[in-house]
Amino acid sequence: xxxxxxxxxxxxxxxVLVVAVLALGxxxxxxxxxxxxxxxxxxxxxxxxxDGIVVGxxxxxxxxxxxxxxxxxxxxxxxxxxxxxxxAGVDLPTDTAAAIESDGLLGSKYIAxxxxxxxxxxxxxxxITYTQDSLTFDGLMDMILSQARSRRGYVGxxxxxxx
Length: 163
Description:
Layout: H1 5-29, E1 41-47, E2 58-61, E3 64-74, E4 80-86, E5 97-102, E6 109-114, E7 127-128, E8 130-132, H2 137-152
Parallel strand pairs: 1-7, 2-6, 5-8
Antiparallel strand pairs: 1-4, 2-3, 3-4, 5-6
């Protein structure tokens, strides 16, 4: 029988620690890295900026997860290449586009596939040729400021000083 308050606190703390370790083990122990044994096939997509894309990032088609990013690498001309492992049966037309999008303003990134209308499909090991890079917060702010300047007639001119 536990006699003192410190012993009860130590026992409760140990229990919480064990539960936390088990929860972390379940979360990180699952297979987040697609492997060759999981079926499906791989294709690649090259981006100028792949901010937020890592191994295990979702690949979505019409909002449904159809694959994961299996690998990321850099080409000789410094483009980011994402190797996508897609589920079997997801046949993409050759004019499919891949765009890096996010869940909201500060949400996690994912690769959204936008289907084309071509009859031919991308073969396993093939590549998506139409890509759209991720939009960074700085890029978004630059876009907003440049549109505001153009509407006010300040393109190429300094903004007026407010006294």
